[in-house]
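ugh ok fine here u go
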Amino acid sequence: MASIQFGILMVPYQTIDAAGPTDILFCCSRALISQYENASLPGFSGLSEKAIPIEFHYINETLDPVTLSSNFKALPSTTCDDCPPLDYLLIGGPDMLTFQLSPRFEKFIQEHVKAGKGIFTTCTGGFAIASSGVLDGKRATTNHGALEMAMQAVPNVKWVKEQWVQEGNIWTAGGACAGMDMMAHWVVENYGMEIAKIAFGLLDFQPRDVQRKLIDLS
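structure:
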């Protein structure tokens, strides 16, 4: 099975917006689980074949560092021009009082969606990409504290106050931790609870469902 090519667009997001969801994916990855299986750790026998084959790409317009929240400096691994074809693209939430989507990022997002590939947004990420038009006419959410501003700024989107929203290949989540809940749901849906529980255990994380109720992991 070919590896999932998973991109993170390096807007100046809140660090956990991308770190949370991608750590869930990494903890379920074939790369990590095969190490545990090869080390004969208890409970991992036979799981590497069920795990997620995935590669991560951190994408910016240049290879210059990007300053995230709490002055965290992150290095892109590729550029919009050199990035390999992606299966999924994650956009975290920048400060929407100051952020404006660049023309290059806008084009990158539009081309990705036009190709029928998946989008995930967390926190204000939904608001951030809305100006590209990819959410027009669709139900979507963003950080609930920014919903009113999003409704006024981008009225073509059907903004809703929900934990997360799926519209075809586009998933939008509310706050940062709602993004982790959303990604947890995606993993369970696509790879099963057995694999998902590895991430939940390693991260000491109990996700919530779309109704904000804790999922029973017993």
